[in-house]
Amino acid sequence: MNFVEAEKVFPWVKEGKGNIVYEAIDRHVESGAGDTVALYYSDGEREESLTFAEIQSKSSQFARGLLQLGIQQGDRVFLFMPRSPDLYIALIGIIRMGAIAGPLFEAFMESAVRDRLQDSGARAIVTTPSLLTRIPQSDLPELAHVIVAGAKEELAAPLHAFEQVMKQPDDPFIQEVSGEDGLYLHYTSGSTGKPKGVLHAHAGLLHQYVSGAVVYDFRPGDKYWCTADPGWITGTSAGIFAPWLHGVSIVVRGGRFRSEDWYATIEKYGVTVWFSAPTAFRMLMAAGDDVPKQFDFSKLRHVLSAGEPLNPEVIRWGEQVLQRRIHDNWWMTETGSTICANRPDIPVRLGSMGKPLPGIHLAIVDSKGNELPPNTMGDLAILPPWPAMMRAIWGNEEKYQSYFRNGWYISGDSAYRDEDGYFWFQGRIDDVINTSGERIGPFEVESKLVEHPAVAEAGVIGIPDPMRGEIIKAFVTLRQGYSPSEELAVQIKQFVKEKLAAHAAPREIEFRSGLPKTRSGKIMRRVLKAWELGLPTGDLSTLEE
Ligand code: ATP
Ligand code: MG
Question: Among 90, 269, 295, 382, which has the minimal tally of Cβ within 10 Å of its Cβ?
Answer without folding.
Answer: 295
